[in-house]
Design brief:
486 residues, alpha/beta, 10-stranded mixed sheet, Adenylosuccinate synthetase, chloroplastic, GTP-binding, metal-binding, P-loop_NTPase
């Protein structure tokens, strides 16, 4: 599908700083309008007007709750985790590694970009757990800790790293790049942070875990096996005795520094549950990047969906309660892979700049498109979300009309009833759109749902109606306070 850009708009490729008064973004279209509905008022459209109402909403969350992504990542999970963490004792990461990029702001508006440290770290009373399902790059972890400490965020006694978590080495990152180069035109589009190679080491059972740092007598042999394996697989990977010696010496120092952080987090998490501590699980990436349920092979190497909570932290399914799905008011994707509702060309560029859609981890420009309801319903099915956090609604404020991708059809018009696993089918899919009116006004200062323009409320309520899950949180800016409780 092609989209015609208004001739009055000029795309400025220079860096744009985030402001509430962004330059206008106008979209024209030549899509067929499949259906236009005026959403009926949602029964869940209750305005939470007082602080006590908002507090009640948060405190009603289960003892063990989670925040997970509903798209291809980058939905803004970190901000919600940061806000909710004020009411939880523990925030835990259960999967992924430094390929996660969570941007949060403190009370003074200072920006923090986290990759391994859970987003609860800015809340002084919160303990942060890096679970067994996470792959840990120690140089990156210490760099984050040093950055936080230099900005007066104390980490001492506030971060636990699972003794069962696997170590991600610099060579894993090098192998990641070599593998992408080898794939040529069919490359995955990874962050090149070594995540896939590290999980590969884990699965073929020659990985090195955090607990191995306590046994430096056998550590060199284990590391030699890993490095030799990489050298035999990739001719471009140069490995010799000197590299091994240097890595061993480096990790001796890392082992000493990490020791105060190491814990049996499986025991700790289950003890905390029995002590009635409140636990918030922070997912990295998102369901559409899940190794099983995502657009394979253009996925991550872990399980960012609900099942990853239990396997990545060692807690029982029966203790997991409310899960909040985080979804942008539109859709973005980084890297390769199918993207049915993608907007190509200059109009996609304009949405990208309006939303400042550049990766927290890599800085790469994100691909942008309309909200994909088919994919969102699929994610809700898999995870059983109790509510949704709709983020970046303010980014759509300058549009005269907004589209929702509500159904898929094959080229011959045959309806596709579920999100397909077949990539060839996904690449040929035709998307049916509903077109809703825009609100053409700045909503970044709105703090009550009832104060949103009617068209903005219609958009939110139509999403609820189509997906069947209530939207309880609405993001209308990057700051901590830029959140509407619905």
């Amino acid at each position: 599908m092609t989209m015609n850009l208004s001739s009055s708009l000029v795309l400025d490729s220079s860096p744009i700083k985030w402001t509430h008064n962004r330059r206008p973004v106008a979209f024209s279209r030549n899509f067929v309008v499949c259906s236009v509905k005026s959403p009926s008022p949602s029964s869940s459209a209750v305005t939470l007007s007082t602080e006590s109402d908002r507090l009640s909403r948060i405190e009603s969350l289960s003892q063990v709750s989670g925040v997970l992504g509903c798209q291809w990542g980058d939905e803004g999970k970190g901000k919600l985790v940061d806000i909710l963490a004020q009411h939880f004792d523990i925030v835990a990461r259960c999967q992924g590694g430094a390929n996660a990029g969570h941007t949060i702001y403190n009370a003074e508006g200072k920006k923090f970009a986290l990759h391994l440290v859970p987003s609860g770290i800015l809340n002084e009373e919160t303990l942060c757990v890096i679970g067994n399902g996470v792959v840990v790059h120690l140089p990156g972890l210490f760099e984050e800790i040093d950055g936080l400490e230099s900005n007066s965020v104390s980490c001492k006694g506030r971060i636990l790293v699972s003794d069962r978590a696997h170590l991600l080495f610099d060579f894993h990152q090098e192998v990641d790049g070599l593998r992408e180069a080898e794939l040529a035109k069919s490359f995955i589009g990874t962050t090149k942070r070594g995540i896939g190679p590290c999980y590969s080491s884990k699965v073929i059972r020659n990985g090195i875990r955090v607990s191995d740092l306590r046994h430096m007598d056998t550590f060199p042999q284990k590391l030699d096996v890993l490095l030799s394996d990489a050298a035999s697989r990739f001719p471009g990977f140069n490995y010799g005795p000197e590299m091994l010696r240097e890595e061993v010496e480096t990790y001796k120092r890392y082992a000493e520094r990490l020791e105060p952080f190491i814990a049996d987090t499986v025991h700790f998490m289950n003890e905390s549950i029995s002590q009635k501590k409140k636990i918030l699980v922070e997912g990295g990436q998102a369901t559409m990047l899940d190794i099983d349920f995502g657009t394979y092979p253009f996925v991550t190497s872990s399980s960012p969906s609900a099942g990853g909570i239990c396997t990545g932290l060692g807690i029982a399914p029966r203790v997991v309660g409310d899960l909040v799905g985080v979804v942008k008011a539109y859709t973005t994707r980084v890297g390769s892979g199918p993207f049915p509702t993608e907007i190509l060309g200059q109009e996609g560029d304009l949405l990208r700049f309006a939303g400042q859609e550049f990766g927290t981890t890599t800085g790469r420009p994100r691909r942008c498109g309309w909200l994909d309801i088919v994919a969102l319903k699929y994610c809700c099915q898999i995870n059983g979300f109790s509510s949704l956090n709709l983020t970046k609604l303010d980014v759509l404020s300058d549009m005269s009309e907004i589209q929702l991708g509500v159904a898929y059809k094959q080229i011959d018009g045959t309806p596709v009833k579920s999100f397909p696993s077949d990539l060839r089918l996904l690449e040929q899919i035709k998307v049916e759109y509903e077109v809703l009116p825009g609100w053409k006004s700045d909503i970044s200062s709105v703090r009550k749902y009832s104060d949103l323009p009617k068209a903005a409320r219609q958009y939110v309520e139509r999403i609820e109606e189509l997906v069947g899950v209530p939207v309880h949180y609405i993001g209308i800016g990057p700051g901590r306070d830029a959140l509407i409780f619905k």
